[in-house]
Specification:
Strands 1-2 form a two-stranded antiparallel sheet. Helix content is 48%, strand content 2%. It folds into three domains: 118 residues, Orthogonal Bundle (Cytochrome Bc1 Complex, Chain D, domain 2), CATH 1.10.760.10; 87 residues, Cytochrome c-like domain (Cytochrome Bc1 Complex, Chain D, domain 2, Orthogonal Bundle), CATH 1.10.760.10; 164 residues, Orthogonal Bundle (Cytochrome Bc1 Complex, Chain D, domain 2).
């Protein structure tokens, strides 16, 4: 519903309303105040009904998955985004076709109209049980899951049991893949298969995260081989596992500091085919038993290093960062920054992932989203979708 009080809208200057200079790219826009009159708002509503309502809803409240609410959105922000589509500086999409026949004056009126509408209502809060699940700390969950592993792999993932691998400091992507290989039977080990059979995918991820964040150290069991002799054989392994056994590819395990007996057993398994990996089988095919022991001893003697894995941010830490620009609880008071309170969660998730991958360009947003996991993106989007949206009025003050 249109507000009875007409706001002063701080918009990029429209040639039709202010006799501005020719249009500039959005990043270079000079903002100045203009006054949208009642006839302007009415005309904006007419244009919106023709060009916008089919996707964004009659009152700017979207009912279509992946399409954002725009009711009560900050008008200057809406204008600059519409203008970007019109000028082709945003990627081609349905929006390009929707605005290509609109003048700059029409964009101002449409943006002003949507700015006067009542904001969307927040998404419904979850049931208590679902909420508790959603807010579970992944690191604490991983620590709890790791308690059943401590007998073989050590309390913090550093093995003191000959033949059992250290898990501390391994990249979570590798640990998830290895655990799932035991679950599926691709890696033959009946005890491991039985131990991980009932572990959910979420807890496998939490377990891997817990071990990745533990301080790595050399395994405690002595090595049977000759480390100096094993150095020469290790030269062929450096491409995947690093010169000194510290891998840079998350798909490959670091071998530095690993239990020597486990390394020898695993290498032998690749050689005889009980572990299925054609690349590894070819690499170790020419090694005899002594060379395998020496290779294992070399890697066991190396200093392990922690992978580049950060501790997950809490929801409070994430929102504190977002609120700096988007306003408290996502209610922006900056005319050029969008409000995200009560926005569709699927849209927020889609946009954050677009910034993460670089499909959508913004240096600030890329820096914020690049460190986020998919789970954090989903949790953050859900959080803002449940916040109450507040309208904002931009006020022109008299000159002093």
């Amino acid at each position: 519903m249109m507000r009875k009080i007409l706001a002063c809208l701080v918009l990029a200057a429209s040639p039709a309303l202010t006799h501005a200079q020719p249009a500039k790219p959005p990043a270079q826009l000079e903002l100045r105040p203009i006054f949208a009159t009642v006839p302007d708002i009415i005309e904006g509503r007419r244009l919106a009904e023709v060009s916008c309502a089919r996707c964004h809803g009659a009152n700017g409240i979207s009912t279509t998955a992946g399409v954002p609410h725009i009711a009560a959105q900050r008008s200057p922000y809406l204008y600059t985004q519409l203008r970007a589509y019109l000028q082709g500086s945003r990627p081609q999409s349905a929006m390009t076709g929707a605005v290509k026949f609109l003048s700059d004056d029409a964009l101002v009126k449409v943006a002003a109209y949507f700015g006067t509408l009542d904001p969307p209502r927040p998404a419904a809060a979850p049931k208590p049980a679902a909420k508790a699940t959603a807010q579970k700390d992944p690191l604490l969950a991983g620590k709890a899951a790791a308690e059943s592993c401590a007998g073989c792999h050590g309390d913090s993932g550093v093995s003191k049991t000959p033949g059992s691998p250290s898990l501390a400091g391994l990249d979570p992507k590798y640990l998830v893949a290895a655990t799932n290989a035991y679950k599926s039977g691709q890696r033959k080990h009946e005890l491991m298969k039985s131990l991980v059979a009932g572990v959910s995918d979420a807890d496998v991820g939490n377990l891997a995260l817990f071990y990745a964040l533990q301080k790595p150290a050399r395994a405690g069991a002595p090595a049977a081989g000759d480390a100096a002799a094993g150095k020469e054989a290790a030269a062929a392994c450096g491409g995947c596992h690093g010169d000194k056994g510290v891998a840079t590819d998350p798909a490959n395990p670091s071998l530095a500091g690993q239990d020597a007996q486990y390394l020898a057993t695993a290498t032998q398994a690749y050689k005889d085919g009980t572990r299925k990996d054609e690349a590894m089988k070819a690499m170790v095919a020419a090694l005899d038993d002594k060379a395998i022991r020496d290779l294992a001893a070399f890697y066991a003697a190396q200093q392990p290093q922690a992978p580049r894995v950060r501790k997950p941010l809490s929801l409070a830490e994430l929102t504190e960062r977002c609120d700096r620009c988007h306003g408290v609880n996502g209610n922006s008071i900056d005319p050029m920054v969008p409000a995200i309170a009560a926005q569709r969660a699927d849209w927020l998730e889609q946009v954050l992932n677009a910034y993460r991958t670089g499909a959508r360009k913004s240096a600030a947003m890329a820096a914020m989203s690049s460190i986020m996991s998919e789970a954090e993106v989903k949790e953050l989007a859900t959080h803002y979708s449940r916040q109450s949206a507040r309208a904002v009025t931009f006020i022109a003050l008299p000159n002093r």
